[in-house]
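Hi Q.,

Before the meeting this afternoon, I wanted you to have the S-adenosyl-L-homocysteine prediction in hand. No need to reply - just skim if you have a minute. The sequence and ligand are here:
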Amino acid sequence: MYSYYIIIISFHTVNCNTNTTDFKLHVAKHLMSLIEKALILPGELLFEEAKKIRDKIFNKKIYLRAIIEFSNVCVNDCAYCGIRRSADVKRYAMKEEEIVKLAQYAEDIGYGTIVLQSGQNSIYDESLCEVIREIKETTSLAVTLSCGEKSFETYKKWKESGADRYLLKQETSNPELFRKLTNRSLEKRFACLKALLDLNYETGSGNIVGLPEQKLEDIAKDIVTFAEWNFDMLGIGPFIPCYGTPLENCRAGDVELTMKVIAISRIVCKDVNIPATTALRTKVGEVSNIFDCGANVVMGNVTPYEYKKLYRIYPGKVCVFYEPESWLENMKELIKSCGLKPSGERGSRKKGRFKPNFKTLEKIVEKLNNLSEDLTSWEKRLEIENITKDCSKLL
Ligand code: SAH
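Predicted structure with the ligand bound:
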């Protein structure tokens, strides 16, 4: 057996023909095909294993985090996103004092983390420092930012002001697809992720599952990248077509496939924080199933209604019509009804406790392969790939 269980490959740096490189490529190929197999096999066993790992590591806790969507002003024009620059939506930018007050309110009602998310804009490059400082001085909240691609200096200023975490999803690890969808370079996005890791942010990536033209192979590579980069958080959600975007008539991402991506990421990346994303909950509803795949985090929206209705990155967002406090009470009940424990702790990841590893996944795939005939798997694969072919002409 090779020692590929510990992550060692770098897709981004493979460019010479030494023996080591051959070995790395071999390992990479093996892992990709392992994940592709896992993605097309029935989900149950993956879900069972993912839940087991989650419950053991987090002692059955589900961390509740609050999110404030403080501005929908965005300079980017991502084809999937309903607040892209060219979308016809009323723009808003909340006042700094308003953001601080909402964060304090989030702590008052029992949250341990505040996530500040916005479209990518430079309005707050300076003023966010003061917002972060005030939140840190007046509360004991962990502060997570999610404001897009910024310079090293800006990330540094925000970190020095007290920010703890940063979410910047890679969206897809296929550079051509990323370019087509965003008109930007994936390399730059990964350079930002590297800067965030270098600055010691707890760093989150993640992907969108079921994007037009996305192949199973791309999704497998996403998961290998999650493990390779050892991210602290992973936001994994299905693609939801949004009216007024070039992809409005495309098919939505498959819920079961998304849940399998979450489960495999849990099995491989162990103690990483993985939310039951708003996109997933929008597709399945606020039901107990959302925790079935091994997610250990859920986010409640505390943005005032007048703003959150305009932060429509995709339609039907599950949080828009809920009032924060009753949503929180209902969610706690839902979590308890699954035999899990709602937690308002900060829930930081302690890096280094676990190494990403593929051993368990390999065992499950072997077991499942013995149980189900390959034929059904290939049918499933075709079905999934056909879904994503639909919209290729639109890109
Ligand atoms: N400006 C920030 C935040 C973006 S919005 C940034 O660039 O990171 C947060 C996430 O919503 C995105 O990372 C993307 O993965 C997701 N998203 C946007 N549009 C979506 C859609 N139509 N379907 C599913 N997820 C979507």
